[in-house]
Design brief:
Elements lengths: L5 E3 L11 E5 L7 H17 L2 E8 L2 H8 L13 H10 L4 E6 L2 H4 L3 H10 L4 E7 L12 H11 L2 E5 L12 H9 L3 H8 L4 E7 L4 H4 L5 E4 L9 E8 L6 E8 L2 H4 L5 E6 L10 E11 L7 H22 L2
Parallel strand pairs: 1-4, 2-3, 2-5, 3-4, 5-6
Antiparallel strand pairs: 7-8, 7-12, 8-11, 9-10, 9-12, 10-11
Helix pairs in contact: 5-6, 7-8
Amino acid sequence: MKPTLHIYRSLPPAEHRQPCALTIGSFDGVHLGHQAILARVCEAAANRGLLPSAMTFSPHPREYFARLRGLPDLVPRRISSLRDQCMALAQAGMRQLVVRRFDHTLANMSPDDFVRHILVEGLDVRWLLVGSDFRYGRARSGDIATLRQAGAEHGFEVHTLDDVLDARGRRISSSDIREALASADMVLARDLLGRWPSICAHVRHGRKLGRNLGFPTMNQGVPERSALRPGIYVTRVHGLADRPLAGVSSLGVRPTIEGEGKLLLETHLLDTSADAYGKLINVEFLHYLRDEKKFSDLDALTAAIRQDADDARAYFSVHGL
């Protein structure tokens, strides 16, 4: 039986509270830098008999302050949905995740109150790992020095982790991954994430237009403000068979059909079919083929889809599944 990740939208109730080893961060994408942090937490928890835990915030603090100031363009794009984030945290060994709402109350909490009410009374933290630039409390007035003082007072250890570097000696950051996804550099995104970029969501019913054109598709919702560049991709699909399946996907708003619809992921399986409705599938993005565009008619759209499928087959003939 696989260990369970317990997810709390606030603090865990008293009857479920256990002494924990904790890390705090956004963990968007759960990239290689995050994975190094989580490994340290797991090691400390195992050595001390603590519950390996993570705390993140929703919305992201940057999103909260951007919207508060009326600057929506500063809201960061999402690398992964909350579901994907939770799955990755569980795979990394976390057994408790606190998704704390970031609101006016939290933004204006003093550093002392944050430590006392959330870390000590709310989570029973005994070991804490944060980045060396970690700030907390109202106006970011708490820092590592004040956190260490609080730890000495309340009985928890405070540790920091320096930046994790990639093969080029550069800091691995969510910002770099967002840039790689926006420019459709899937290989760089994979190297920073430690896995291919992906979207995991349930397949839902669509308008069946792809089927009528001879290219049936599986439709999935896309995380709001997805960092992935819209367009046509070579993809690999998990969750429908005991092996990955080859696909070609459109991430876009279907301008030929709807003019300007809601962002949607549509995936056509190459040379196979599957009963996918209602199933949770994971679509990995391997290679960018082209931008989404508006065609003059359905015949032109069908010809473009046929070419996309051929280009995807050519990719797999070289790279395999």
